[in-house]
Amino acid sequence: MTDLDREQLFENYWLPVENTIAKDKLNDFVLVYLLFKMPDSAAEKNAYQTFKKFVEKNQISNKEILENLKKYSKYYNVFINDDDKNYSKKTNNLLSVFRILKQTTIYPFLFSVFEDYENSIIDENVLNSVLQFFVTYIIRRSICSVSTNSLRGLFKTLYKKNFSKWKKQRSIFKKFI
Fold first, then answer.
1. 126: number of CA atoms within 13 Å, CB side?
2. What's the predicted TM-score (pTM) here?
3. Rounded to whole angstroms, how far apart are CA atoms 60 and 63?
4. pLDDT at position 40, please?
5. Whole-angstrom Cα distance, residue 117 to residue 125?
6. What are phi and psi of 77, to 5 degrees?
7. Distance separating alpha carbons of residues 9 and 2, to the nearest angstrom
8. Are 76 and 88 spatial neighbours (Cβ–Cβ below 8 Å)?
């Protein structure tokens, strides 16, 4: 890779990520992204090495990684900041509950949900229904003093185990309609 290629990748992908996510939140974003992308969880101390092995094993290019980071940084920004203009007041209000409860373990799951919304696989009503369901679920767990340490594993695999099957079946169903 030439210096010019590196510079273009930096300007076209990494710089927009830095401009989207505040520098003090960038490390948190990358860890959530790694948790979302990698099949196995990585501890913060060895996340980079684990991700590097994952990239090499799956032969993912630098450009692909940076394109993904740029895309998901936009979603992450919505999760951590108030009143994003691209989403309704209701969506923003529901996301604010996760912030108030300091419930960040749901973010890897929300990456997939927001991607479905952006790709018009689900509409805003479904998006808000999913958010409302998990707000209620997390509040109920909190009221009952149920520990949240197991939620990271749940949210990491929930979409792949359940919602992706529904999406596939729905797309197949649409072909026959």
1. 13
2. 0.84
3. 8
4. 67
5. 10
6. -60, -40
7. 11
8. no
Contact status, residue 115 vs residue 108, Cβ threshold 8 Å = no
Nearest alpha carbon to residue 105 among 58, 70, 142:
142
Q: What tokens does 153 get?
A: 């594993």
Write out pLDDT tens, residues 80-125: 998 788 899 999 999 999 999 999 999 999 999 999 999 998 899 9
Tokens standing for 138? 């997390």
Indicate if the alpha-carbon torsion angle 4, 5, 9, 12 is positive or negative: positive
Question: In three state form, how does the secondary structure of 74-138 look?
Answer: HHHHHHHCCCCCCCCHHHHHHHHHHHHCCCCCCHHHHHHHHHHHHCCCCCHHHHHHHHHHHHHHH
Tokens 């990684």 correspond to: 65
Q: For residue 2, give both structure tokens.
A: 């030439």
110 closest CA partner among 97, 59, 16: 97
What are the sequence ranges of the domains in the chain? Answer: 1-81, 87-177
Q: Is 74 exposed, middle or buried (0-12, 13-18, 19+ CB in 10 A)?
A: middle
Could you tell me the two tokens for 12?
């076209």
Place of tokens 């169903």: 173
